[in-house]
Predict the structure.
Amino acid sequence: MRAKTVRQLFCGLGFLAPNLIGFLVFTLVPLVISFAMVFTNWDILRHNMFTDEAVRFVGLDNFRRLFAERDFVQYFGNTLFFMLGMPLGIAGSLGAALLLNKELQGPGARIWTWMISTAAFTGSVLVLFALGMASTATTLCLLVLLATILIGGSAGGTTVYRSIFFSPSFCSGVAIFILWKKLYNPTMGPVNRAIVPFLDWLQRLVNAIPPAVTEAGSLVCAGLAILLVIHRGWRILHDWKEGEAGAVSVGVAGLFLVIPLIVALPWTPSALSGWIVLGPGILFAVFAAVTLLRGRPYACRLDYGISITVISAAVAAALSCAFLGLSNVFTALPALCRSGLEPPNWLGAYHWAKPAIMLMGLWSAIGSGNMLLYLSGLSNISPELYEAADIDGASSRQRFWHITWPQLAPITFFIFVMSVIGGLQGGFETARTMTQGGPAGSTTTLSYFIYAEGFQTGRLGYASAASWALFVMVLIATLINWKFGNQYAED
């Protein structure tokens, strides 16, 4: 029996050997070597077989130098800035899942769908040519693609639409980046060719209207930004009083709401718009403090409801920052129109490179695996909950906020944490393929910084220190997932 057990053990190890050897050679050994290099001054240009200089032990000098370097702080800020689009990507994935979860069935549904598709396609063609798009091969391809999507979806139902939405995820990331780089070409790219007629129309319109109109638009956008934050904050306080959100959940959500406004406040276009944001914000902060100090009748766990509360606050913060950006656009628009509006150099201008990459990331995130996770979560929600809500006379908005959104809380929190981990680690392929980290380091993330230090400048010890600092950040996010993700999955 003992000999048989030994034979079975060796047989099992034989089958596991390729995986174990691969893990040892390509994962464990490089990790150990990388950890050892952290404490050395290993520079591949100075310490190699052609030089006599020896590698020295430097202790924690690499970490001290890393955190004292302004470039590292800038690249860490770039990484966090790119992650601002994460809440919008999650919201877009949820919106796509809600749309694709509807079945195009029932009496007359097929005829109605065909009518909508035909009207949408015809309207799209008319709008494109009204804006002045030339009949180029690119325009023709776009129109044919649009017609195929509309007609195919009408004929095949949601299955076709789901396949179309998810199809970009099958493509290679580098191929998609090269495609978007061509789309963003400042002279021949389809994006700029499409917006040139719109910019000409906008320039004529702004030059014809009084400046007070654009100033009013700036103030309205600033007001919408603070109203959005106050509305979300009001809902968070309501959930706290009703025992649906714990103290930790409210605190983290409050940081998500307040920090973007504090950062964006110095860039408000005028003193009046600044007071529009700051004045109601201070009043609401006082009201929130008084409400929290008065206590609540219903107690709950400190971290209860953290997924719903934090994600909704993050989406509101991202939208409020977008409104503040529009406020700046309205203020600067008259001067820009007088000098002449030109399409942006998307990847070549310092202030346009980040938004261009974030728009591409938003496009790819909406139809990604997050959408599939939400679709599976929607299919697992009991129809009896919606039937009970219909009997009680609940509206579509109430059904979403009180049934759909809470039922998707575990999936939402899992997607959020995994997106944070991916955001901290990501950005290398995009920067390497599209911008080389430029212009002026505006698109350099931590992952691309590690690559540049290790394989372009050859400072392997310094690059290893940066990689282990990134590992600590990812570890913290993973511990949050271990703390809360399993808990809400079990709930």
Notes: The first helix runs from residue 2 to 37.
